[in-house]
Structures are given as structure tokens and as C-alpha cells.
Specification:
alpha+beta; Rossmann fold; 8-stranded mixed sheet; 2 domains; 36 strands; Tachylectin-2, Chain A
Length: 560
Amino acid sequence: MPDGILRVGILCNGAHFQQWQADCIRQVMSVPGVQMAVLVVNEIANEATTPKGFLDRPWGTALYRTYRRRWFKPAAMAKVDLSHELKSVPVIACRAEQRGSGQYFAEADLERIREHRPDVLLRFGFNILRGTVLDLPTYGVWSYHHGDELKYRGGPPGLWEIMKGDGLIGAILQRLTDNLDAGRVLRKGWFPTVDHSLQETVDTVLTHSTPWAAQVCRVLLEGDVHAADGMESGSKAPLYKYPNNIQFLSFLWKQFGNKLRFHREELRAHEEWNLGVLYQPIQALLEEKPNLNVRWLPAPSTVSFRADPFGYMDPEGNLNVPYDKYDRATGIGATHRIRPKRDNVLKRSRTMLSLSTHLSYPYVVEHEGTVYVIPENAAGGGVDLYRVDASNEALELVTRMLDVPLFDPTVFQHEGRWWLMGTLAPLTNVHLVAYHAPSLQGPYSPHALNPIKADLRSARPAGTPFLHEGKLYRPSQDSEESYGHRVVINHVQELTPTAFREEAVKTIGPINGSYWNKGLHTISAVGDITLVDGKRYVHSPEQEQRIRKRKLRKLQNGTA
């Protein structure tokens, strides 16, 4: 910005917004350099155009409309009054003219908007906008669409995804163009569909897409004038509308069945993880048909399991594997170390670190001759760097790297910087954040676009980033089908303090032909060796009893 100021206006139906819209506005207002320029208020909040089909008329969709009015109450859609917070912002009342499927502003209203010199207009009101207003702000009119626009145009969000058994619900922030359904996508993400709850699905996608407008504003203010260009969508997806009465009854029946299945599987299907060794470099996994002949360790005991293997070689040439040893009874993991041999005999298993909080994902990084381990300790409130004590192989605390509770914290060097990546609660499989520093120990600064990615299929780290033919690759988890279902290897095309782009290029797992064929969520490199883990499901009466007791406590507390 020439003057360091980004002037943002809001297209709305008044000072009352849905909770997610209010959160979005507040986040935009909190960006240093943003100035609220104008509120453009719709004098008449028009309903969508009347459907033409018999079943799609109001009486034909009465069941869904009644459900929306009486029982559908996502927290993200609760009404919020922002009149006090926006009291100093100039207000313009406008009446947009309906022409066909679009709404057009009169020239007099356009001139009144121009007087406030908006750089951006956020659309939280009116309907389908066409004409001059789209080009009036410097960086256009921005609008959210909740649903993957390449698969679902229209709405309502979440309902058709559940009906069709789609495990993902998408969302975009787009810069509107005069070509219908051909907006320029500024930010896009994919979130989990909660197939037994439309309300939870809608809450998830609305709540967790709100930061995007503030992110783009922040990058524009840092000088990237192309941040608002985006890529044209040009979607040819079917146009979805409100379900008719027959469709909605079918939806309710399916949602009920999904609810029963959810509770049944939670009681009876319990994860068990184990570790395996591939005697080949991690780069070999990029081959068209990689060798997945894994040597699995002997099955763990019934009271615990092993996951998240990382490794290093000691001075004697022994392979040491720090891993997460998870105790089923306590629900807490600790960092243990084993020495697997080619005959799968385990040598000198011992505890490296045990705390009162859950530890997992003991990420190994070697730097300047020292072996460091960074266990995930999100419950401890941050990311800590430990050194391997050669005298007793315990972990010795060096420093706290970051006061942010990251899941699966992953550290690597790229183009002269140290990078620290991980995901954040509550959507630990969706939101990827990044921090950068001049040295391994920090200090770490946040990426301008945090979270830099929102994608259930490829956000959460899954092991060691690596180089191949001069290109950087980042393993990540794909949890669309289930938690830890498989690993996706991404080619990182751009990574700077203000930009991030990557492309999924390879999918690995689950590894068939073994007992551990239901999931894979870690691949890590130790020289020419690759470490993996694998999942299977087992029935555990003890675990089932613990889950029943937890559900009973929730019912007693009124939280179920």
C-alpha cells in the first residue's frame, strides 16, 4: 500500500451478523493497517429467486425450512450485534436492482461508495452481485462460498455432502467476477464432514474459514499486490438447492444411521499401531511403484502400542528409533527408544522421556554433530528442544522453541531459514501453521498466512521433509477416510515468510499384505533407511469399558 493503509468496506444487511461473519470482521479489523471505510447496507434483504420446480417451491421444501427455523442452530450462525464496534464507520443505504439472477447498483449508489475509496469490499449481504461494483474496489469484492465449488454450487452447505457420503466439505474465499461461478479463488480449504451431524459440519466449515480474509489483507499490507489476484474457478459443478420434502426425509434417515454406526464403531474398533523398517532411502517412495516390503516389529502388548518412529545412528553404527509408546489405560504416551535388528529382535528398549502430559511424534533432527529430539507435547503448551544424552540416552531439555501447542512439530532447513511446522487444535488434522527462524533454537516468527493450509487430506505433518533432485518434499497425513489413513507426499513449490504453495504428488499406504494394513501416518528418514508405522483395529473389552464409562459421564453432565 502506498500509504500503508488498506481500506475495507462491508456489504451487509445491517449491523447484525452471524457469529462467523462477526469473527471474520473482527479479525480483519485487528490487522495493523486495516481501516474500516464504509458499511453498504441493503435496504431490502431479498430472498433468493423463486424456484421453478413444483417440489422446489416453498411447500415442496417445507420440512427443511421448518427444520432450519426450529431445530438447526449452529453456534457459528448465532446473531451478533456489531453496531457498537462499527459505530464510527460511515453507513450507506442502497437498493440493488434485480436483473435476472444478478443484482446491480445504481450509478448514484456507486458514486457514494467511491467517495469512501474502499480497497476491498467484503460481501456479507445482498445476493448475486453483477456489474460495476465488482471492479470498484482496488482489490475487488470478496465473498465466501461454503462447499467445494468444483463439486457443489449453491447449497445448503454440508447437507448434500452428507447425503452423498462425501468425507470432505470445502470452502473458498473468492474475488467475485461478472462471470457467474467463475470467481477468482483467494483461499481454499477442505474440512471434515461430520456425517452424523449437519450442525457440527456447518459449525466446522464456517468457524474455521473465517481467518482467510484477514490473512489476505495482511499479505497485501506486506506488499504482495498479487495476493488478491487468485485463480479463476470456472466451476461446471451441478447447482444444488434446498432439498425437497422427500430428499430431506432421506437425509434425516441417513444421518440417523450414521449416528448409530458412529457410536457402534467407537465402542468396538480400537486402534493399534506398530513400527516397521524399509531398507531403502525415503526418496524411493516417489517411484511410480515403490517397494513397500516392510519389516514389521513384533506385535506390541495389549496394554500399549508403538507409533511415530524417527531415528538416528549412534557412534557404533546402531539404528536407534525414538517412538511414541502409548498406554491405553492412562491415555498418555511417552518417548521410548528401541534398536531394531534385521531379524526384528528388539535390543535395549528403554524410556527416553516421560512426563505427566502426553508425548508423541519424537521428531529427530541432527545439527552440527548433535542429535536433537522434539517430542510433540501440545498438552504442555509449547514446543521443546531436547538433546540426546550420550551417557544414558535420556533426553535433556535445551530450550523452548515456541510457546504454541503444536501437533506433530516438524523442523527443517530451507533456503537459509529454519522452519517449524505443525497443526493446531481443535482441527488437528486440518490447519497447518509455519514459523521461521535464523537458527534451530529460534527465535521463531509466524508465517504471514498462518494457518498456511487448511486441508484434511494433506495438512498435518507425517515425518521427515526431504530433498530429491533439488526439490523439497513434505510428508503429510491424509485423514479423509479415517485418522492416520495414509501419507501424502507434497512437493513444496514456494515457501517464504509471506507465501506458501505445495502440490500433492504421491500417496503412500496403507500397506497391504500385513496385519498393519488399516493406516499409515509416519514416514521418516535415517540415511538410507525409512521408518514407518502401521495401524490395525482390534477389539478390546477393557477399552470398550473405558469408553462406556466416559459416555456415561457425559450423559450425566449433560454434554453428550
